[in-house]
Structure formats: structure tokens, C-alpha cells
Amino acid sequence: MSNNSPQLMLDEPTADTLREIARRFGTPVYAFDMRRMRAQVDRLRGYLPDNVQVLYSLKANASLGICEVFQDCGIGADVASAGELATAVAAGFDAERIFVAGPFKLPETIAHLRHLPEATVSIDSPSELDWLSELGLRNKAVLRLRPDFGSCAVVPAGSESRFGFTADQLELVRERLPSLSLNVIGFHVFAGSQVLDSENLCGHLRRALELSLRAAERLGIAPEMFNLGGGFGISYGPADATLDLVRVGEELAQLAEQAAPARLVLELGRYLVAESGWYLTSVLGQQTFQCRPAVVVDGGTHQRADMCGLHLRTMANPPIALTAKQTSLAPTDVLGCLSLPADVLTEASLLPELSRGDVLAFANAGAYGVWSSPALFHGSPLPAEVAFDGSTIYVMRQRKAAESILDEQQHILQKALATHS
Questions:
Q1: Number of compact structural domains in the chain
Q2: Whole-number pLDDT of residue 282
Q3: Is 419 a member of any domain?
Q4: How much is the average pLDDT of 282-308?
Q5: Is the pLDDT of residue 9 over 80?
Q6: Can you tell me the distance from the alpha carbon of 273 to that of 390, in angstroms, rounded to the nearest whole number?
Q7: Can you give the pLDDT at residue 254?
Q8: Distance between CA 296 and CA 337 in Å, rounded?
Q9: What is the pLDDT of residues 223-278, one digit of tens each?
Q10: Domain edge (last residue) among 254, 273, 292
Q11: Does residue 7 sit within a domain?
Q12: Among 300, 309, 317, which residue's Cα sits nearest to residue 370?
């Protein structure tokens, strides 16, 4: 299958800013629209009940500058590693707004948590619950529950998931509660991400709350928090629907009333940051692929991996040719610069005639980009990451030189020869 949809329209001020970013920082480069990030938070607030807390999920993109923008918007942080936790703290998120998840907390994460007693911890299994309690961790905790329902998500985490307490395991917890150092205040359910059908998403949220309420009754606790996950999807291509936030907001209003006095929490990553991001890459030359015209660019899938199974190379909107001449459009493939057959950024996209140096801008690239890619493949240096607010541009990460791949590596041959001499 190929993507032969026409190019997206881009307003000229944004196009000018992206061209300036490519000129100043070279390509490949990631560029993030700060206004779009803020607008996405405001949009959510316009539809969701006031008593639903939103967390930014750093696994979508843990750039410090992006985290600072969302912290400034007044939302919380959802983290799943020591690095993400350190980033959330550095970005200024209040500890009581930090939610620490993940299937098993590593020692470095636990060390951070000892200094952040106000942070909430999601516990994934009876084994982890016992271990963290034995360590004397005193944070508030929620128990992650494995869904007892199927998932409609593109990236599912339903009943077949590896994460969370099963019903049988939950039965073992009640007798342990009085002896735990952790204060169990609620439950956490996540059924999957990239859901575009509002009814399916509402079904996930509703069943997550029902499962959590049953768990609270079984354990005999009065919960303070229900983290219902998230999974809000965005439209990557012309075939994708647009999530109906009106319907989702109505459902959440009913669920919040049902959950009271406990509060509802949502963890959103892709939905908050994806549409703010652009991946810019320049044409190096021409090639052919599957009997079609193609161009080779200086970027590739090592910086924009399709790790979530979204089929972006065939289903996403075509890139925007920022600097190409206005010619008739023809199906064109965009190939990355890696010695890897699968390094294809897009297939049969309708693009104008492209020449060496022309800059292509891939939209909706803010989530799961370089942070989830095999960025070191071929010894590749990391690209620059910049943010822009209108025409004002801010550097978040400078481009690394090729020699940076050697940083913190050490020669061993001479040491080995000296040892054996």
C-alpha cells in the first residue's frame, strides 16, 4: 500500500520558520512548535471536566525543553525510568504531580523516590509491592491492574498485556495492606494507545474505572485516585479519524461523578506532543525504489522509527517540500541514508520534482521520534532539537559532531597488551 494523498497545507509563517531552522541548524533536525503544545493542553481543558488531572507522559518525548513547556501549562508528569524522573524534576514539575510507573523500579529510580516522598508510585506486581515495602519506601502508591477486557488500541495493552496485577494476584494483597510501608491510595489501568474511535476510547475508560472500583471493594480501601491511562490518538494520515473530544469529555464527566470523592487521572503523551513536532531532512540525490522515482535524504528511520506499528511510511501524510520548485506532483519514495533495506521514510508520496538540498518537513513528528529510535545505528550523531514560538527559535539540543560517538569510550588494546606483557 502507498500514500498518494496530496501534500498538507502549511501556513507561510510556520514554513518560513522551518526553513530558517533548517538553514541555521542544518538537517536532519527536530523542530517543535511551542504554541501548538500549549494549544493542545488548552484544547483538552476546554472539553475535559475540571476535576480530571492530566499528566504528560515523558515516554513520548523526554526532551527537557518540551517538559518545561508542559510544566508551565500546569499539568503533571508520568515517568517510567530514573532518567525520565530526573528530567521531570529538572523541568520543575512539583513532586506531588509526578506519577512513577513502569514494570519494576530500578535501584536508581528508588534512590530518587526516597528524596521525593510526595510522588505517587504505580506498583506492577505482588513481587514489586513486597520488594518496595521491604525497602521501606513511603510514597503513596496505586496498584496497576491488568485489564479484564480486550483493547481496541493500535498499540494494545488489554487482557493479553504483561502489565499489572491479575484478579488472582489481587486476592493476595488485602491481608498484606496493614504491614506495607507504602500507602495504597488507588489503582492504575492502561488499555492501550493511539485510539481514534471515541466510543472505543470511552469503553476503555469506563471499563478501567469499573475494574478499579471492584478492586477497591475487594481490598476494602477508600481510594483517592484512579489513573485510567489515556490512549488518545491523533490523525497521522488521510484515512485516520479525528478523536471526538466532546464525546470523551461527556464520558469522563460521568465517570468523575461515579469515582468521587476520588480524582481521575489521565496520562497522555502522543496526544499532547505529536502534532507540535516536525522532522526536517534534506535531499542528497536521486534513486529508484520499486520501479518508482525516489530520493535519498540525510535522515532516516534511525531518528524517526515507527516503533508503534503505525505504518507511517505508507499511511501517514506526505512530507511538505519546503524549498522545492512548484511543479506537478508525482509518486516519489523518500529513502533514508542508512545501509538498511527497511530505511524508507515514505512510499509513493505525491511530491514535486526534488533536487539536491531541498528540505522535506515530516509533520506530526513530536512523539516517539529520536527518543524511541536506534539513534546510534551506524555511529550516527544525534540531530539538533529546537523549539519555536512564532518566529522565535530556541535551541534544546545542539547537533552532535560525528566524533561525539567516541565520547566516554576508552581505548583498551594498549591496556590489554600491557597486562599480558
A1: 2
A2: 98
A3: no
A4: 91
A5: no
A6: 17
A7: 98
A8: 6
A9: 999 999 999 999 999 999 999 999 999 999 999 999 999 999 999 999 999 999 99
A10: 273
A11: no
A12: 300
Cα–Cα distance between 213 and 244 in angstroms, integer? 26
3-class SS string, 97-142:
HEEECCCCCCHHHHHHHHCCCCCEEEECCHHHHHHHHHCCCCCEEE
Domain membership of residue 186 (yes or no) is: yes
At residue 5, the pLDDT reads 63
| Phi–psi pair at 32, nearest 5 degrees | -125, 130
d(CA 147, CA 138): 27
What's the mean pLDDT when you consider all of the chain? 93
Q: Are residues 269 and 304 located together in one domain of the fold?
A: no
Triad 214, 219, 221: Cα angle to 5°: 95
As given in the structure block, the three cell numbers for residue 130 are 513486597
Q: Name residues whose C-beta falls within 8 Å of residue 121's C-beta, 6 or more positions apart in sequence.
A: 100, 105, 113, 132, 137, 139, 140, 141, 142, 182
**Phi, psi dihedrals of residue 373, rounded to the nearest 5°:** -105, 160
pLDDT in tens, 89-109: 999 999 999 999 999 999 999
CATH of the domain at 374: 2.40.37.10
CATH number assigned to the domain comprising residue 239: 3.20.20.10
pLDDT higher than threshold 90 for residue 111: yes
pTM above 0.90, yes or no: yes
Positive/negative CA dihedral, 149, 187, 58, 124: negative
Q: Assess whether 196 and 129 both reside in one domain.
A: yes
Range of the domain at 343: 12-30+277-406
Say if residue 232 is exposed, middle or buried (CB neighbours under 10 Å; 0-12, 13-18, 19+): buried
